[in-house]
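Ticket opened by: R.M.
Priority: normal
Category: complex prediction / small molecule

The reporter submitted a protein together with flavin mononucleotide and asked that the result be attached to this ticket for the collaborator who will pick it up next week. Submitted input follows.
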Amino acid sequence: MNDPSFSRFADIYRSRPAALAPMEDVTDAVFRAVCRSLGATLCFTEFVNVEGLLRGAAVAKRKITLAESDQPTAIQIYGSDAARLAEAAVVAEAAGAAFVDINCGCWVPKVAGNGAGAAWLREPSAMVAMAAMVVRAVSVPVTVKTRIGLGPESHMPIVELARRLQDVGVAALTVHCRTAQMGHSGKADWQWARRAKEGVTFPVLVNGDVRSAEDAERALRETGCDGVMIGRRAIEHPWVFAEVRARLDRGETVAPPTREERARVAKMHIAWATDAGGEREALLAARRHVGGYLAGLEGAAKLRKAVNEARSLDLVYALIDQCAGCEAPASA
Ligand SMILES: Cc1cc2nc3c(=O)[nH]c(=O)nc-3n(C[C@H](O)[C@H](O)[C@H](O)COP(=O)(O)O)c2cc1C
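Result attached by the on-call engineer:
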């Protein structure tokens, strides 16, 4: 393909990407910026409901709004109807998505129970036909993120599915190496990503339980996949992206972040969240991330509790400084 969006896409996937996973209520524009500043190669938005998107709902609009600097970012969509997914993909493309990702992996009842997300795994042929329709609707690349199967199959459908998705023009695949039935429990089985990758030539990201540079290196070695996608570990330790990049690009191990660095990123995240959504949003972001960012420091457990109870950002900033030992303890 000569289309610039496809050649950019190919370059990204050739660089052994460390991608920030789509995570509802987590992977917002601010967190994407934080992770990108620490080395994330590629980001995905949290999933966006196609009906909300096509209705122009405020929440969906916010989720697909990409700043110029927010690239490369894929907009992830979910829904149960192929034609509506195709229509929504057009809206996502117009919003500036580097590519459009289709969620075929969400297991939660409010999504899968309504025929979206992992429900597509019940009927692989329908998933392939839906993906083909979305591919035809847009001129940017279309990718799919799914699980290895519904569970508890002995031979997971992902192997055959990967090949069939490639055949209809899907540009890349992310394999969360759990079944839908497993939810977030149990251990991700990367061997299914290897088996899926063996049968295709398009790029595959391996996802599930990649928590460190060592994990990333091992996951790529054991699966032959093109890159890794990291979710939960990034919420508490976004430095994982810098660590993975150093390992994959230069074979280096980077030292863990210092207290000052931990405090810097925590405060930067809160400041950016304040700019983007005001004090309320910033307090929510602080509750979600600050305990993890400062984990391991003395007093971190107490800090987590205090941040959860804090009603003002001034107090949160003071608590961070106090825990990181950057300044004299605040009176609060
Ligand atoms: C809070 C949370 C929200 C999530 N939301 C989404 C989502 O919107 N779309 C999606 O494809 N996966 C979603 N996931 C799944 C992650 O993208 C990822 O596949 C999963 O967490 C496994 O990767 P990990 O072991 O690196 O966390 C979510 C996971 C978590 C923990």
